[in-house]
Write a structure and sequence with these properties.
With about 450 residues, the protein is α+β, with helices and mostly antiparallel strands. Helix content is about 30%, strand content about 25%. The protein has twelve helices and 22 strands. The strands form five sheets. The protein has an eight-stranded mixed β-sheet with strand order 5-13-14-17-12-20-18-19. About 50% of the residues are buried. It binds flavin-adenine dinucleotide.
Length: about 450
């Protein structure tokens, strides 16, 4: 099967690369090879009744399939260069923002119209943060919500399915460089393309490492973010979430000078399990539809850990901490903030007496047995700092779920056009280590597609 362009991975990076190739060079043959199912068949078996927690499916329906890791996400589309990746370092700040805005426009045409765009533009919250030694990062945030995000993906698929060959349940095992292009080998067959775009996201990180080793593509790796997901009554953060929806607030800790930040805020949302390579961690999302709203808001507090030589396996470090929580709790552990401060574990009884009702069935336990002191100290310091701008954050019943880990793919050495040292082989999205968000990943796909449209 011979194509002009092979795209490996059907997440936002791969989808938007395919979309833009169709727009700019409609006559070209394009294939998308995706390890997971098509959108309609993506279903996590956790139903809260028969299956209460992660059963470690061989191919996780949350992380894999058309739409990628973001398919059931909250669909927070952040238009900014301040977080979500370093795409601007490759293609320039202006172009990066232009491409993120371009994708936002397409999302609006594909079913997202009417959703709200929030902005940190002139908010007084910025000053309030500064007065308390906290720092609010600048961004425009489109909140699609899990439900509308799904509709947008459905429409994108319907728009492309007759013109692009999608191969689902097709995990690519090897990428071979041959005369005149690349061959992607999968159990079902081999697919040849003159150009190859790899966009395998975080779930493909281990595979990506193998590809880079086999093809001798230089990589660097030194970062992991470790923390907890905080869940509290919606009213506590309402003045922030009503105005900004998502506020990225950063604090530098006094003792260790680490940066702790809020991440992925979900007003009226739910806390969920996430399975990365068989390790169960925590995440969160929320729905646009008011009928699906809960009484709680959740967000992550993450501490960024950068390692220096000789240590190279930053993801391995994060995995070991997450494994510890899985070992002690059989999955994710939940603890009340008050219990953590008093040095006692949370128990089912203590949790049942709590005024905050958890939205995820996690195991009550003790996070201090799991998290390194430096990281836990940073999280506690941040909770007290946030309590000054959102009183009630440091209440006894505030729930902390652990562990939340943001694994970063190793950074692949790429040109400004996201091309590897092999001509015609591109690595985009989260799999490249360049992006960590829907907006940056999608924009990276458009960027490479436009470059290919010029040279094909
Ligand atoms: C629960 C959750 C909530 C999130 N919420 C948000 C949010 O609100 N806002 C935001 O900006 N970001 C969010 N993110 C992050 C966001 O989803 C990612 O940054 C984004 O999806 C990255 O896009 P991508 O295309 O690079 O990779 P992915 O979306 O991970 O897609 C990669 C695809 O490649 C496939 N693949 C992997 N290996 C292979 C292989 N060997 N062969 C074939 N296919 C393969 C995978 O099955 C997957 O479908 C969230 C992530 C999760 C997990």
């Amino acid at each position: 099967m011979k194509y002009d362009v092979l795209i490996i991975g059907g997440g936002p990076g791969g989808i938007y690369a395919a979309y833009e190739l169709l727009e700019k060079c409609p006559g070209k043959k394009i294939a998308v090879l995706e390890a997971g199912h098509e959108l309609a068949r993506r279903r996590c078996p956790i139903d809260g009744v028969k299956v209460k927690s992660c059963i470690r499916c061989p191919c996780c329906a949350i992380m894999n399939g058309f739409g990628g890791a973001g398919a059931f996400s909250d669909g927070k589309y952040n238009i900014t260069n301040q977080f979500g990746g370093t795409l601007h370092e490759f293609i320039g700040k202006r172009r990066a923002l232009e491409l993120m805005e371009y994708v936002d426009e397409i999302n609006m045409r594909m079913g997202g119209e009417g959703t709200k765009l929030y902005s940190t533009g002139n908010t007084p919250i910025k000053k309030l943060c500064l007065q308390n030694d906290l720092h609010l990062l600048d961004a425009s945030v489109r909140h699609l919500g899990t439900d509308i995000n799904y509709v947008v993906l459905e429409n994108l698929y319907n728009h492309m399915k007759e013109k692009v060959d999608f191969y689902f349940d097709t995990p690519v095992q090897h990428v071979e460089k041959v005369e005149g292009g690349y061959i992607a080998h999968a159990a079902k067959g081999s697919y040849e393309g003159e150009y190859c775009i790899i966009s395998v996201g975080r779930s493909g990180s281990k595979w990506m490492e193998t590809v880079c080793r086999e093809l001798q593509i230089p990589t660097h790796s030194n970062r992991v973010d470790i923390g907890v997901r905080v869940e509290l009554p919606h009213a506590v953060f309402a003045h922030l979430t009503d105005e900004l929806y998502e506020s990225k607030i950063v604090c530098r800790t006094k003792k260790f000078q680490d940066r702790v930040r809020t991440f992925c805020m979900n007003p009226h949302g739910v806390v969920v399990n996430e399975n990365t390579n068989g390790i169960v961690t925590v995440n969160g999302h929320s729905y646009e539809d008011p009928a699906l709203h809960t009484d709680n808001t959740n967000f992550a507090l993450l501490v960024a850990k950068h390692f220096s030589e000789p240590f190279k396996d930053s993801n391995g470090y994060g995995e070991s901490i997450a494994k510890l929580s899985n070992m002690l709790g059989g999955g994710v552990i939940v603890q009340r903030f008050g219990d953590l401060i008093r040095g006692q574990r949370s128990t089912p009884k203590r949790l049942s007496e709590s005024f905050v009702v958890p939205t995820l069935a996690a195991t009550p336990g003790d996070l201090s047995l799991v998290m390194p002191k430096r990281i836990l100290d940073g999280i506690i310091e941040m909770i007290y700092a946030l309590d000054k701008i959102a009183p009630g954050t440091a209440n006894d019943d505030t729930l902390l779920y652990g562990v939340e880990v943001k694994f970063y793919n190793m950074e692949v050495e790429l040109t400004g056009d996201l091309e590897t040292c092999h001509k015609g082989l591109f690595i985009i999205g989260d799999g490249s280590g360049v992006t960590h968000s829907l907006s940056h990943a999608s924009a990276s796909g458009v960027h490479v597609a436009r470059y290919l449209a010029e040279i094909m």
